[in-house]
Amino acid sequence: MEKRKLSFWEIWNMSFGFLGIQMGFALQNANASRILQIFGADVHELSWFWIIAPLMGLIVQPIIGHYSDKTWGRFGRRKPFFLVGAILASVGLILMPQANIFISILPALWVGAGMLMIMDASFNIAMEPFRALVGDNLRTDQRTAGFSIQTSLIGFGAVIGSALPYVLTKYFHVSNSTVPGSVPLNLTLSFIIGAAVLIGSILVTLFTTKEYSPEELSNFEDPQSEVDVPSEEKSKLSDIFTDFAKMPTTMRQLSWVQFFSWFGLFGMWVFTTPAIAHHIYGLPLSDTSSQQYQDAGDWVGILFGVYNLVSAIIALFFLPYIAKKIGRKSTHAVSLIIGGIGLISIYFMPNEDWVVLPMILVGVAWASILAMPYAILAGSIAPKKMGVYMGIFNFFVVIPQIVNALIGGPIVKYLYNGDAIYALITSGVSFLIAALLVYKVKDVDDTIQKS
């Protein structure tokens, strides 16, 4: 049997929930460092707080992948996890910028870090089944397009989330002024709007997407899969470790590409706000609460929106077609090189407006990072193991972030003398290393067109 070929709009609706997930994730990425600094965190401590994000992914995604592989009921296989994750993430979004209301119980910084943990765990509960759903529902010849459409929705959601605080202030006159220890109103309102959009977009996917039953999926075993799945064994959670040991060769090769890609991304997310504030705006390293610092933080939201918008356009209109012409591996390598050059070039930009140009280049890399590795990987995995292996693959997304979280802060403090711009240069170099490693990867069902 062969899976039904889905239309563009069926694939679009199937991934639409990612728009809300990424809107919330973008609000967190662009503003969590700023919020934590408002609540009292020093710049060299930021990466330690951010370790929560990859740690939650390391723990949550393989477990969710394992159980979603084994789940089937009236609500489907992956869809129950979408809804639970969205509800919990919305709670974290609403409460993180308002952590100071709990100051009579705990310091605001602790509460803010706790809400960051809830958000990250919940985003991971929702995200992993979305990756697996694309692998479940799409044929081999649609996988690149499916992950590219998913990436475009990620980009559109991230644009909205990243730009929302700036837009609320610029066009709706919502105040971005603050006093020490308090988050500006434009940020608080942005997080509340993000929570509402997250729930709404998840519901679109829930009501428009049909999942294949386990019986149907058993008839779609991919003959190119590198994973053998015993049909009679009773599954247990400890099988995650066995599956890890038996991971496909393609996954092992991609793991190094992912390590350096996500090491670089984590450094960018954590240190862009202080880097732009101090290197581009010329503010003192000790300034975390002035009006100029808030303006710099809002502008970082716009910059993050730029790279996400570019990624959405690249993924939707160009990535699948380029991959067909030159192959997924070459597409990914070139994209990472472009992104690495972009990050390094931020150091040389004369003012904040010019930083838009490097972020356009970063957007090219981001589009490929979110699509190409998963499209390459999906062809090497048996359908029955799609969820757990997508979860295990997340190890190679979160481990580099944990490493960066542990060493990034001390490096900025002691090696870079507190100047976060050098952390962005380090991220750019990391992208370039990832690009070189792409060529060692075996793509078992590459869709490159033969002449």
Automatic annotation (TrEMBL):
Record-linked Pfam families: MFS_1 (PF07690)
Keywords: Membrane, Transmembrane, Transmembrane helix, Transport
Protein's membrane topology: Multi-pass membrane protein
InterPro entries: MFS, MFS_dom, MFS_trans_sf
Compartments reported by the entry: Membrane
Keyword DNA-binding: no
Transmembrane segments: 48-68, 80-99, 105-126, 147-168, 188-208, 256-279, 299-319, 331-349, 355-376, 388-408, 420-439
Name recorded for this polypeptide: MFS transporter
